[in-house]
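User:
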Amino acid sequence: MAARTLRIGLIPGDGIGREVIPAGRRILEALPSSFGLQFSFVDLEAGFGTFKNTGAALPEKTVETLKKECDGALFGAVSSPTVKTEGYSSPIVALRKRLALYANVRPVKSVASSKSPVDLVIVRENTEDLYVKEEKTYDGPDGKIAEAIKRISERASWNIATMAGDLALQRQRVRDAGGKSIHQKPTVTITHKSNVLSQTDGLFRETSRKALAQDKYQTVNIDEQIVDSMVYKLFRQPSDYDVIVAPNLYGDILSDGAAALVGSLGLVPSANVGKDFVIGEPCHGSAPDIEGKGISNPIATIRSTALMLEFQGEEEAAAKIYAAVDANLEEGKLLTPDMGGKATTEQVIEDIIKRLLLRLSSFPGLNHWH
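Assistant: Predicted structure:
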């Protein structure tokens, strides 16, 4: 059978994005031909540095290349100005809209030896809510007033809820096949604030419940939490949660906060998923305080690379990568400073590649959602 060739766009962005995105490429290049995969790569630009150099945070060439030439992409991190900068807007938010990447999927999972096990996935709606970035400021009788539009649609809510339901069933299939887990039954928890935002969050809640009432989800337990109590319970009782689905803003906050449950944002991957395209994206930021020091954690990018492969149907290859990362973390000898260690970025990359190559013949290839 002829090898499948995947062309991957590499968008390092700013700061440590330029140090960790090469790790994703090296991991893909380390996968042997026995998987029936080959990769080619194209380097693309986006970010605040690109904006300062060219006047465009997301060059049209980047978008068109992704649409016409690529099967997927890896996106590093971007630095965002803390004050209003005329003409600048987030390139990753724009990419999500331009490529119809309606779901941001963020698994948060501890290693097997953890004393407080965590095994959950946050499914964040990726295209609307306050992130439509429709804001205005005007003069009021007592000073300036700033307003922002919060947009929730039935269509987007339905799509993200069904994504969450499908992932819950997929995770359960792996558990039924013998995958170890802290969960006994697939559960989707709908997160909202409809007690205050009865129109917008009310529509999200109502639509999500309708979507998850479909016959194919009859084995899935459907729960819900008001977002403020969700934050409290997530940190107090993380083992209670399997799949969490939320509007854009809440999903962003919850997933970054959940990273604390496993030790570092440097461990947490994500995938921006649409019907025809996927972008792997580590959850951390551009970290200018450690830029250029060679100590950034590449694991979130490596896991995001595997997550990208999963959504491209290459679950076995993804599982091999996850196993190599877990082995590195379980041993704990080569950890970057954010994890309490002294290892460099390069040392961690080399260790994971070595473990990947050592385990290729023995690891059974279970899907990651377990």
